[in-house]
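Possible regression after last week's pipeline update?

I re-ran a chain I had predicted before the update to compare outputs. Posting the input and the new output here so someone can diff against the archived version. Not blocking, just want to make sure nothing changed silently.
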Amino acid sequence: MILSRIVLASASPRRFDLLRSLGLAVDVIHSGYEEPALPDLRPAELASRHAAEKLRFALRNGAASGGAPVLAADTVVDLDGVALGKPSDSYEAARMLESLSGRIHEVHTAFALAVPGNAGAVAERETTRVHFFVLQPSEIAEYVATGEPLDKAGAYGIQGRAASLVAGIEGDFYTVMGLPLARVIRALRRLGFALPKPNDSSPSLPTETNAGSSR
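New output (post-update):
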């Protein structure tokens, strides 16, 4: 079956853009899940739990009513077993970047995918190791001043101005962006969906309901 539309239970513009790059129309819905800290879980487990709960909340709140597959995801930055979420302000963003300076950390992105009417859901997780350059205080201050870190786990977005902070990665670039795209595509194929061909009609404009904050 050719897939033309997918429901994204996340307001992350990075995930939205990645799905649109596949030729899909994307309906955005806010799941209503508030992402508690859950300190007893390891960072990788936390990403998986959040993704699963976002999907469950979205389905409960009517995301499945249109019949399109529903996708939820969560990204957690893991520094020595400590989960770094989105900073609450510029000061916390600077502190996070200072802690990442010259270090290697892991980025875990989990996703959960369900098709209305089908039993069960697909739940997967990908991990990528990220190497940061040693960052100068002025470099951190300039980046924080852009405002870019404030809605991103670990206080940086690899696809944006923080590209200059990253010395290298081991693994999937898209996982660091917030969605392991290859895994999502393969999961959709296992569920019986094929992506639109390049010459298929362009997807209609996306719709958005229950708008909320990213991730």
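Follow-up from reviewer: compared with the archived run. The mean pLDDT is 90. Marking as no regression found.
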